[in-house]
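Quiz preparation item.
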């Protein structure tokens, strides 16, 4: 079975969300450059040290300052490979907190949102994220519906979507303007 996002998966998601394929591709582009997997088959992740700090109550701040600190730093991790290095080190300390503190797949849904993705536990969430990009999209559709973010996506309320999907620091990475720009591109290049 292919792990690549299919047209059928896109159509199903668009129908369920009552939106277009351009909106879904826009979110994928901004979150992961449209890649749910690395070339070696590993799922795309981003380990977030400030979330790991929250999930472990700062327990590792002093001894592992690259893995755990209280304030978001957009420069860390430097790449997906760096994310995996940090993630693997964090797993050695607290695997559950590491999974909760990472965003997963093409749409970069945070592990701590596993229940909002229709998963009963973290193991199921990770398994479905590792299955395929269609599976990642299915979890994201459930997440958007469960959290009420489908309206922001459908109505192209990019600033609201960016703030609620990416957090209060969304302006620093220009998530809202990047969403608007990518949507304009997808609209012009269907």
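Solution:
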């Amino acid at each position: 079975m292919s792990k690549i996002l299919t047209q059928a998966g896109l159509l199903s998601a668009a129908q369920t969300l009552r939106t277009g394929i351009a909106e879904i591709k826009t979110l994928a582009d901004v979150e992961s450059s449209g890649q749910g997997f690395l070339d070696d088959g590993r799922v795309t992740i981003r380990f977030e040290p400030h979330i790991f700090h929250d999930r472990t109550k700062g327990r590792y701040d002093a001894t592992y300052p690259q893995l755990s600190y209280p304030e978001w730093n957009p420069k860390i991790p430097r790449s997906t490979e760096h994310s995996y290095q940090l993630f693997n080190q964090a797993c050695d300390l607290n695997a559950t907190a590491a999974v909760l503190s990472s965003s997963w797949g093409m749409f970069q849904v945070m592990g701590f949102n596993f229940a909002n993705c229709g998963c009963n536990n973290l193991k199921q969430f990770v398994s479905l994220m590792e299955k395929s990009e269609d599976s990642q999209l299915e979890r994201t559709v459930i997440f958007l519906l469960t959290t009420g973010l489908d309206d922001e996506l459908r109505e192209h309320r990019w600033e609201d979507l960016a703030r609620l999907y990416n957090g209060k620091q969304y302006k620093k990475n220009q998530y809202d303007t990047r969403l608007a720009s990518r949507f304009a591109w997808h609209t012009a290049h269907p």
